[in-house]
């Protein structure tokens, strides 16, 4: 499935707008506690393990979005937007991705 942060797809014609889709994924409190301990132990700088955890969570949110778009009959999602939130009451980091599900045809095949 084609996905982009832009409002159009180069070399494609959008033939139908199907609606807004979204996907969410969260990093659990236990993982965050482990990360907090890692930061205290290692100090500042970049933390590859945390970056990997965020990447994997973002990918899970993208898969959820893609599944919702496929259920609507889309072959692409445009206008992707990512949102990151820390839910302090639950200790979760929530990643949400949203966009517009569309049907797009490759102009080269028309």
Describe this structure in words.
This protein has a single domain (2-109), classed as Translation Initiation Factor IF3 (2-Layer Sandwich), CATH 3.30.110. Helix content is 35%, strand content 41%. It contains 2 helices and 4 strands; from the N terminus they run ββααββ. The chain starts with a strand and ends with a strand.
User: What do we call the CATH homologous superfamily?
Assistant: Hypothetical protein apc22750. Chain B
Low-confidence stretches: none
Strand tally = 4
Largest sheet: 4 strands, mixed
Mean pLDDT: 86
End-to-end Cα distance, whole Å, is 19 Å
Top-tier CATH class: Alpha Beta
| Helix coverage percent | 25-40%
Number of domains: 1
């Amino acid at each position: 499935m084609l996905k982009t942060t832009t409002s159009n797809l180069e070399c494609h014609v959008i033939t139908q707008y199907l609606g807004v889709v979204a996907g969410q994924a969260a990093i659990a409190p236990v993982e965050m506690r482990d990360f907090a301990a890692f930061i205290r132990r290692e100090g500042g700088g970049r933390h590859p393990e945390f970056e990997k955890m965020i990447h994997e969570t973002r990918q899970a949110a993208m898969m959820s979005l893609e599944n919702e778009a496929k259920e609507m009959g889309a072959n692409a999602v445009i206008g992707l937007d990512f949102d990151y939130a820390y839910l302090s009451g639950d200790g979760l980091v929530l990643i949400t991705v949203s966009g517009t599900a569309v049907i797009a045809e490759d102009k080269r095949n028309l």
